[in-house]
Each structure stands twice: as structure tokens, then as C-alpha cells.
Give the backbone structure.
Amino acid sequence: MDKKFKRTLVTSALPYANGPVHIGHLAGVYVPADIYVRYLRMRGEDVLYVCGSDEHGVPITIKARQQGCSPQDIVDKYHKIIKDSFSGLGINFDIYGRTSSEVHEKNASDFFRKLYDEGKFITRESEQYYDPEAKTFLADRYIVGTCPKCGAEGAYGDQCEKCGSTLSPEELINPKSKLSGAEPVKKKTSHWYLPLDQYEKWLSEWILEDHKEWRSNVYGQCKSWIDGGLQPRAVSRDLDWGVPVPVEGAEGKVLYVWFDAPIGYISNTRELLPESWDKWWKSEDTKLVHFIGKDNIVFHCIVFPSMLKAYGDGYILPDNVPANEFLNLEGDKISTSRNWAVWAHEFLTEFPGKQDVMRYVLTANAPETKDNDFSWKDFQARNNSELVAIFGNFVNRAVVLTHKYFGGKVPACGNLLDIDREALAEIPALRASLERNIEGYHFREALKDAMSIARVGNKYISDTEPWKVAKTDLERTGTILNVCLQICADLAIAFEPFTPFAAEKLRNMLGVGINAGFDHRKGEQETVNTYRPGEGSALHTVSSADGLPSCGVCLDWSHLGETDLLPAGHQLNQPELLFAKIEDEAINAQLARLDAIRAEREAAAKAEAAKVVAPQKAECTFEDFEKMDIRTATVLEAERVPKTDKLLKLTIDTGIDKRTIVSGIAEFYSPEDMVGKQICILANLAPRKIRGIESKGMILMARQGDGKMRFITPAEALLNGAEIG
């Protein structure tokens, strides 16, 4: 039996403030969380949605050095970009905070100090790489060298971005510090560790026994980690950017970002609700749900719960962690380093007014159980064939016809026929399925349920044809349009979680309001604002019936499926299109941009490959070399060898004789290119037959790392037969 909760606390993974968010982030974390929260708000439930920017860690310091600015400059820049992107897409947090705030620094410090004072950490001394010139310890990302796996230069101490191999600094060839270029040395340092192994038995019971209902990807990854044996994990590191370790003698050490970041959920809640924050984190009747991507499963299911368990003091643990898989782009893995992404802030600029389309498509293709793909053609097709042709078309016809025949007032509902009753009867069943799917975190299926309501309406108005009935029976026309408008009101409710901008536009057309949440800060002291000037907490929009016409129609989730949501005589506002078609030009422009990125990437890869030099072969003696008779020659005739793609038959003048050589160079040179060219040959190579042609000798070629071959030719014309050596 499911436990009953009084309130729900929802968190979304803190986006890392060293760059913008892309559609992979949106599909995996933020859109599904927003759907869930909007649904709960419409049900009148007490729900809090918390998020914020993750602003500490090595990548931010690296970017700051690259751009010649401070880490604070970097996080200020990207915090704003990320926050504005979320706002533009309707991601409706109660608060969007940041881990560089004063509130967070104090909260994270206090958290560490309590665990430290209670002996919950262990201390370990280890040797780590140190830059003797910059006089600082080096994180793995600050060490670069040659990859031992593929030979690429510029591989990091933790990963080679060319071949994707996971590395350690010890494996790099010729390691260098990114700070000074100096060769790093090993130096002893001490750090504090959270002994995860001590919580292994408890985690096994709590997850593997008590939460078998979690998604298979979440449960499976947790089981794999636990079965493999958990190890202590460092909670501090040597760095000058982050929350300082609040212990005497810990100068130059900060809290490790993985330890620091999840505490940010608590800090942001405290910043919003300084008096009542603890009821959201320390009450057994609060349901905690983490929305994350699969790369954060371990941190939210094993590490953060272990931190809270170690801390004690009544902190609750997550009831569910609905982690999604990854979203690909046009069949290729989204990569920020390769610029292979659709960036949220760029999308909002390039596709104004299309926020709902992106939310809809990302939900329809949500990677809930496996990696999924986003394509621009699918984006266009779903907009044009579903949102425009089904949802938008039905609403437009219903509202336009009501204005045409009834002056924009909801007509009275007369006697219902079977076709009317059957259409209306479908809505409650779809509502039940919609609720089950949202509450079970199956948002793709929930979206199908919502669109099915639009399909019911679209089919009903097409089957009843009120524009024809109006010629002979206006009363019957009124009944049909009354049914249509009730379904429109249903859509204004059902689509609020998925396409909130369109739902608001539809409610404005219908002249109704919505009850969807309330301000949790009422009754609280004024929130301490630790943000930079002009930045406040991002409270969600509180919707109500204020300012509505005298009829005061206000919808909420409980009304979905009722047949009298809009009373007869209720005045509608003027119709407007909910969705507009997306033309080929806009889509082709995006595809062209991706093609250009792909071509640039391929060209760079080829150029890099061309730099690769094959290793030296085994030594040979001078006597071995003397055996080779290398001479200059001129090509007299050239033709392709029939039924082959690579072979050319060459007739050459060696100065000694005229002979035939068969060479596999047709993919690099045409026969026409060859005639008259002076080349170098190995003249005394034993003859052999190739495709029935006797080949006497071998042309000397140079092969680049990218596979291209070029002739070895004299710098100036020589007599045929001149010896080389």
C-alpha cells in the first residue's frame, strides 16, 4: 500500500554553470520534473520545486583561466543564461538558487563540520600531482599529455576526448601542467573521505529490498555499485575555488563539488523558506523526488543518501529517483565539446513562440527507458501533424464556429445523442490513464493520453459537422458546439503540464482561469537575498481566477472530464491560433548548421590524423639497404586495370629498360595525371603477377596518417635511371 504524504518536495539536478543547457538536459531532467510539478499544483497539492546552478569545481576554474577572468565571472554569466533559458521554456521552479551564495556556503560548511565533529569522516594521506612552478596541487583535468591508447596530444588526466578512453594522470605520456607547462611531481597531501563502505549494508536494504519499484536503470546501476563493493570517497580537494573546508589547517582545500552540490538543494530551500524549510526536509510525511539524468544516479541514490544518513537529525530520503537515459541529436551523441547540441537559449531566439513545441517533442521522445533521438524533421512533423492539425485545428474550429453562429457565447446543451455521450464518456477514462502515467513517471504515455483527448474532440467535430447542421438545425448545432467547448476546457486542463503557454492561450480564449499553486513564502520572514543586483528568486507563477469576467470560471485538475465546465451564455474571447506550421526553411537552416559542424569536425579529424606518424620500423643494416636498387623513372603510359577500383597499369622508362608496374594508386591519381610524371622506383624488387599482369618493381610513395598517398619525386628533373642512395 502506497504511503500517503502531506507534501511533495521535487528537486532537479543542479545544472553545471560552465556552459548553457541543451535539449538533452531538458528532456532528461527539467521538462519531466516540470510536468510532474505542474500536475501536482493543479491538483491543489502542497508541492515545492527546488533547483539552482552548480557553481564550483575544476571545469569552471579551467574555463576562467581560458577566458582570462575569474571563476565568479564564469558562473555569473552562465547562471543567468541557464536561468533565463528555464524561464523562457516555462520550467517553473519555486526557487532557482546557486551554490556560490552566502546561504549555501554557510549551510555546506555547517554540514561538513557536523560530520567532522562526530567522526563520520576518515583521513587519508596520498601522493598527488603538484605543479612546482604554480605551487599548487593539480586536479586530473589540469594535467595534459599524450594519450597512451590512441597517441592523441592534449589528453586530460582523467579522459582522452579523442578516443574516449578513461585515464589516470599516471598513464599519460609526457604529462604537463595546464597551468605552467611544467612537468608535475608527486607530493603528499591529506584529505577527508566519506566511508561509503560503512553504509553498504544499510543501502542494500534501503534500495535493493525496499525500492524494487524504481526504474530498472536506476535500480540496476545501484545494484551494480553495491554488489561491486563501495569504497570511501574524498569529500575535499586541493583547489582555490569552492566552499573552504571549515577545519583549522585546511588552507587551500575546498569541499569536493560532488559533496557540495547536493547540499545546494537544502540551501536553496532554506533561502526561500528560512522559517519552514525543515518541514520539507525533515518530515516523514514529505515525499522527496529527485529528477536526474543517468550520469547522476549514483550521487543521488548512494552518495547523497549516505551523507544524509551520516548527518542524521531527521533528514528524509528520496521516495523515488526517476532518472532518464540520454538524448541523441540526429543519430549522434550530444556533445558540448563538439558543439553537437541544440542549445536552449539559442532555440528560444531562433524559434520564438515555439517553447511548447520543444516541450512537446522532447516529452514525446523522452529517453525514459533507453537512449532516444531528437531530429529536426520529427520536430517539424509533430508540430504540423499533431499540434497544428489535431489539437490546434479542433480548438480553432470550435471557437470560430461559436463566434460565427452564437456571437461567441457558449450555446445551451440540448438533447444529447449517442455520438455526443460517447465522446464525452471517453474523457474520464483518459483522465484516469493520464493520472496513472504522470504519478508513475511515465510522461511519454501521459502525453499520449492528453493528445488522445484532442483526437476525441477532432474526430467528434469532424463526424458531427456543425457547419453543415447549422443550415437546418441551429439548436442541434448549439449542442454540438457545447460538447466541443467542454472538451476544449478539458484540453486547457490536460495540457497545462505539457504545453503551458498554449494552455494559457486556450484559457484566455475560453475566458477562464486556473488554480495552479500558491506562494509558499506567505507568512515567512523576508528571504535573505544573496544574489547579485537584479536577480531574485524565481518563484513560479501563481495562477488564479483574479480579474476574470463576472462568471468567474476557474479550472483545476478535479474538473477534468466534467461535462458542464463552461456554462451556457459564458462569453468567449476572440479566437487565435494555438500553433502555427513550421516551414521547411527553418528546419533546413538547422540541418545546414549541423551539416557544417559535422563537416568541420570531419575535416579537423582528417587533419589531425594526417599528423600521426607511424612508429619507426626495426633497425636494418647498411648491407640490407645496399641491396635495394632505387632509381628515377618516367611514366610513359597509364591505364586502369579492368574490374578493379585501385589498380593502375603503368609503362615506365627506367633508363635501363621499359617495363610494366602495377600499383594500387587509382584512388589517389587518375591515368591522365600519371603520364609524363617522374617518379622513384625500387627497380630490383622480384617480379610478381597482379591480376595476370607481371609487375616488375615498386613505386615509392609516402603515406600520411589520414591514409593519403603521394609520390616521392625528385626536386628537379633527372635522367631516368639515376641511382638514389
